[in-house]
From TrEMBL:
Specifically methylates the guanosine in position 1516 of 16S rRNA. This is Ribosomal RNA small subunit methyltransferase J. Its main location: cytoplasm. One of its GO terms (cellular component) is cytoplasm. Belongs to the methyltransferase superfamily. RsmJ family. Keywords: Cytoplasm, Methyltransferase, rRNA processing, S-adenosyl-L-methionine, Transferase. It comes from marine gamma proteobacterium HTCC2143. The gene is rsmJ. The keyword Cell cycle does not apply. It catalyses: guanosine(1516) in 16S rRNA + S-adenosyl-L-methionine = N(2)-methylguanosine(1516) in 16S rRNA + S-adenosyl-L-homocysteine + H(+). Its EC number is 2.1.1.242. GO terms for molecular function: rRNA (guanine-N2-)-methyltransferase activity. It is an enzyme of class 2 (transferase). It holds the Pfam family SAM_MT.
């Protein structure tokens, strides 16, 4: 995997130059006016911050928008989502959830829309910047329902393993959700643009097994692991049960029943 400074740069925008410069400084990458040799650019627009692939045949931008499209559909119909069934808990007093691999925050948003309190960790500084931008826009959207959902989503940029190791027992989450990077598909034409971007910018997960081990020591009630439907169990550890869809499944490691301390 290339160093971040060779993989991505921030595209300058005359209307947002200070904002662009701050982001470039925070990430330690170049601020450019042209794409040059960079395969990806971070681009600010009226729609927010996005990761934009460059070159011929480039895919469209990857951004976080909790108010539109598929994400908004999931907000309105989230009760039927597999992630909600997997996390479960008391619907009148939903459990606290740590999303250990937040990514673009979509599963966290579905859970928050159903009343769960979320803490989201994302260690990639690029993905974290895009997620934070989307969350900030949701919090000032003028949509009272969306703003209320966003208030239940606390974001932390950093390594989840470090975060868990520092966590006092009293602050342990009820449920920890882990979504390791899916293996890169050989059928590249079928891979979503977000996944191609993540593989390039973030790279492979090298510590997902260690993360599962730590999560099992910290979660109060259960650990939920998202997997491709036919994939092996993470770390070869068989779950207590699973919730399955057409292409994915959620492996559930039960530690103690909800309602028990």
């Amino acid at each position: 995997m290339k160093p971040l400074s060779l993989s991505i740069a921030v595209k300058s925008d005359s209307d947002r130059n200070d904002q662009c410069q701050r982001l470039a400084d925070e990430l330690g990458v170049a601020l450019v006016t042209e794409e040059g040799s960079y395969p990806y650019l971070l681009v600010y627009s009226e729609d927010g911050l996005s990761i934009q692939q460059t070159g011929k045949g480039a895919a469209g931008p990857v951004r976080v928008d909790f108010s539109a499209g598929a994400t908004n559909h999931r907000r309105k119909h989230g009760g039927r989502e597999l992630i909600v069934k997997a996390v479960a808990g008391n619907q009148h007093q939903p459990p606290s959830v740590l999303d250990a691999t937040a990514g673009l925050g979509r599963d966290s948003f579905v859970l928050a829309s159903r009343g769960y309190s979320l803490t989201m960790c994302e260690r990639s500084p690029v993905v974290a910047a895009v997620l934070k931008d989307g969350l900030d826009r949701a919090r000032r959207s003028g949509d009272s329902e969306l703003e209320e959902i966003a208030k239940r989503m606390i974001f932390i940029q950093g390594n989840t393993l470090d975060y868990l190791q520092r966590l006092d027992e009293i602050d342990n989450p009820d449920v920890i959700v882990i979504d390791p990077m899916f293996p890169e598909s050989k059928k590249s034409a079928l891979v979503k643009k977000e996944m191609r971007t993540f593989h390039h910018i973030v790279g492979a997960d090298s510590d997902s097994e260690q993360l599962l081990e730590q999560a099992l020591m910290k979660a109060r009630h259960r650990v939920v692991v998202k997997r491709p439907k036919k994939a092996d169990y993470l770390a070869g550890l068989k779950p207590n049960f699973a919730v399955e869809g057409k292409a994915i499944r959620f492996d559930i490691y039960s530690l103690r029943a909800f309602g028990k301390k």
